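[job 4471] stage=fold_predict status=RUNNING
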Amino acid sequence: MRFSTPVAAYAATALLPGASATIYYAGVAQSSGEFGAWSPTQTKGTGLPGRFGVDYSFISQSGIDIMVDQHKVNLHRVAFLLERMCPLSYGLGARFNETHFEYFKESIDYITKTKGACKSSFIPTSLLNRADPLADAILDPHNYMRYNDPSSQPFSGSVIGNISDPTAATVAQFGAFWGELATRFRDNEKVIFGLMNEPHDLPSALLFELLQTALDTIRASGAKNLIITPGNSWSGGHYWTKGGSEANSNWIHKLVDPEQNLAVDVHEYLDEDFSGSHLACTQDPATNLAGLTGWLKEHKLKAFITEFGGSNTTACATMLNGILDYMSQNEEYIGWTAWAAGPFWGPNSPCCTDQRQYGSLEPGSKAADGGPSLYDTIWIPVFTKKIPKLLQWSGLATVKGGVLSERA
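[job 4471] inference complete, writing structure tokens
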């Protein structure tokens, strides 16, 4: 991740045969775009559409600068709400709130376009023009496969495609949404389509139909972008092969992508119930991911772990190192984003603290007492040490990683 010679920093290299490191994408989730809609009384419509920059935002540009320029991460997962992109008065589908979309696109463009090569007179123009290093962004509809009421996420709102609920958006509407979003980003090869955050408590057959419909409409738009698909049951890696006939391992490998640029989107927390709520880390990642890893290997699939985290305890630092090492040592895993940074967390913590206010992974954040935040106590000493020096900085984001290089 660190390199001091400007010219050499742009020299690309393919992954050597037999190399153990297969992480092509590494970074952090950007969580604030889903803020401002919570209601303690579950009042539908709270915070919708919301005031950009007051109730919610997507990224801090200065935070992105630090993550990319100092820590050399090449991946950000940017959360948003379907109800803001597709207001309730429109319904889920291909009609967007254009003002909201432009705010979102501005953030995605900052990550994937503005954060390019650092221009230097010491770097030959031919190298700069050939392959400026650019970060990738995962588009993250943070809706739990629900639409119409985010006031008490993750449980409020109608399950998309639930034909027994007359207020629910349809499978076709979900497909139309993804077809439109894909059309708008298909010319940006650094954009990754994350189909949905943490679907849960719906039949796996319905989830499969929703995911395949989204895949079909994305590819029908002409987009060749990398797509990452969740599973049911919160997309938990530890539960991937469990649940009998409803298990993700019985369904997700059956998805068909004509571009063969599809990976699996996994979440895996380390606390007692895998929720990411608790301070103590007690769940061994290597043991809990073994079933998923075997399934990935069997079906020749690749995976991202786009949510995982821990508190600032010694045990959590050990287990976070463990899950990061596990991914780098198993070629089935090609990317990760830690949970979470974001400009609106303030002293609050996105996970793993029993609601203690230890701050977030956002650069410059502080705990409620003014002390070091999780950025200082976990991101810097743990995560930054595991960011590979070689990452995919140029070209289309793919499951194969492409050409890997170092960023100056």
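[job 4471] summary: Residues 8-386 form a domain with the TIM Barrel fold (CATH 3.20.20.80).
[job 4471] exit 0
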